[in-house]
Design brief:
Blueprint (H helix, E strand, L loop, with lengths): L1 H8 L1 H4 L11 H16 L16 H13 L3 E8 L4 E8 L6 E6 L18 E3 L2 E3 L3 H5 L1 H9 L11 E6 L7 H9 L6 E4 L8 E4 L1 E10 L14 H22 L11 E9 L9 E10 L5 H18 L3 E5 L8 E2 L5 H10 L4 E3 L5 H6 L3 E4 L14 E3 H19 L3
Parallel strand pairs: 3-6, 3-7, 7-15, 8-14
Antiparallel strand pairs: 1-2, 2-6, 4-5, 5-16, 8-13, 9-11, 9-12, 10-11
The structure holds zinc ion.
The site of zinc ion has 5 residues, from helix 5.
Length: 410
């Protein structure tokens, strides 16, 4: 809180780097950002696991490619899928290695148009906020980056700036996965502009979704020896999962998280058909939220061992299937230079969140990623999504100072 007050009232004394910021240009930036955000909001780019809702993001990618080319970036598209067509956009300013990545996703979640007070695809300004689908999460990020670059002399760049616009973050993270698989180094630090109300987020949990399928043998219920009961077996597996959960909660405790231990949720079970038949099939869906200290591969191996061991003891075929590739936890050190800078500039101490992001994929490419954006996660993924204009404009100053610190000469 102290740092926050100091920053608000005397930025030039405490943070000399900020003296280069041209605060007087804000009204221009506001109208420029509003116009560009309206353009992006008007281009539908829903991504969804259900093909009935899934759309191409090509319109948004084309619009961004045009804007960033005009701003002097060299842009390239990376194909993510063909049907519908989806792309990542990689826009680069300056040359060499290292530097800064500013990353956002181009897609939005599906929407309930009947519950909106205004058209979700028409940017609407009310009460100091911009309303529209994807306004906070996170189409506003791309115009804010362009505003932050406004007037910055390209000859001052000593390290590259890469702006990344990904596909499918809201559904499968396919864009980030394609990027990570390409192995290309993008920069030393990455700022991902997801909605955090200008609080730097350096850690979040990972997600592992699992499906356990058991195939036993049916038979008359009057004689258990006539079959192998998949429900009996699943009962034992569930007991084993609960024991695993208790042990994991003792092994991995981190008070920085609201829920300070890993979780395992038994989400859905399906099996059997009749009380007088031995149950031959049973399926269980569960999810695990992993702490940053936990190994993804190690966790999968432990659950798989449990399934095989218990199902073998029942004479049943048991299998662990991962319907969605797991997402690792984000674990950027609090001591990272980018965490420290964003904390200074915003006046907010670094925190953790419960939602997953593309950060772990960028960290796998050698970045130190921090999640930091002007929106509020509480307004995202629901009707009347908005971003506060004052906070969005403040993000421009912070982006500018961050670009100067990591990409420009002194
Ligand atoms: Zn998002």
């Amino acid at each position: 809180m102290l740092a926050y007050l100091v920053f608000r009232h005397s930025p030039r004394v405490i943070f000399p780097d900020l003296t280069r910021i041209r605060l007087t240009t804000m009204p221009t930036h506001e109208s420029q950002v509003k116009q560009q955000l309206a353009e992006l909001v008007a281009l539908p780019s829903v991504s969804a696991v259900d093909p009935a809702f899934d759309m191409s993001n090509a319109g948004v990618v084309d619009a961004l490619a045009s804007r960033y080319s005009d701003a002097g970036f060299s842009v390239s598209r990376q194909e993510v899928s063909l049907t519908p067509s989806k792309f990542n956009l990689i826009a680069r300013l300056g040359s060499g290695s290292g530097g800064l990545v500013l990353s956002g996703h181009t897609d939005t979640v599906p929407f309930d148009s009947g519950l909106w007070d205004s058209d979700p695809f028409v940017l609407s300004e009310r009460d100091g906020c911009w309303y529209g689908l994807g306004s906070a999460d996170m189409k506003c990020f791309f115009p804010l980056v362009l505003a932050a670059l406004d007037g910055l002399d390209p000859s001052r760049f000593v390290a590259p700036l890469t702006v990344l616009a990904t596909a499918d973050e809201e559904s499968s993270m396919a864009g980030a996965r394609v990027l990570a698989a390409s192995g290309q180094a993008l920069g030393d630090f990455a700022l991902i502009g997801e909605p955090t109300q200008l609080i730097p987020i350096h850690q979040h949990k990972g997600i592992l979704i699992g499906r356990i399928e058991l195939l036993g043998r049916s038979g008359h219920s009057s004689d258990p020896s006539l079959g192998a009961n998949a429900l009996d077996c699943m009962h034992d597996i569930m007991s084993g999962l609960k024991e695993w959960r208790s042990r994991a909660a003792e092994r991995f405790v981190d008070g920085a998280f609201k829920v300070p231990v890993p979780t395992l949720n038994l989400g859905r079970i399906n099996g059997g058909d009749s009380p007088n038949r031995i149950c031959a099939n049973c399926e269980l869906l569960f999810d695990i939220r992993l702490m940053p200290q936990m190994s993804l591969d190690g966790t999968v191996a432990e659950i798989r061992d449990l399934v095989v061991k218990v199902s073998d003891a029942h004479g049943i075929k048991g299998e662990l299937i991962l319907p969605m590739a797991p997402i690792a936890a984000l674990d950027t050190p609090a001591s990272s230079a980018l965490v420290g800078l964003l904390s200074e500039l915003s006046g907010n101490a670094p925190q953790t969140v419960a939602f997953a992001t593309e950060g772990p994929f960028l960290n796998a490419l050698g970045c130190e990623s921090v999640i930091f954006g002007p929106g509020n996660i509480a307004t995202a993924h629901q009707p009347n999504e908005y971003v506060e204009i004052a906070r969005a404009l403040r993000m421009i100053e912070i982006l500018r100072a961050t670009i100067e610190r990591f990409c420009c000469d002194g």
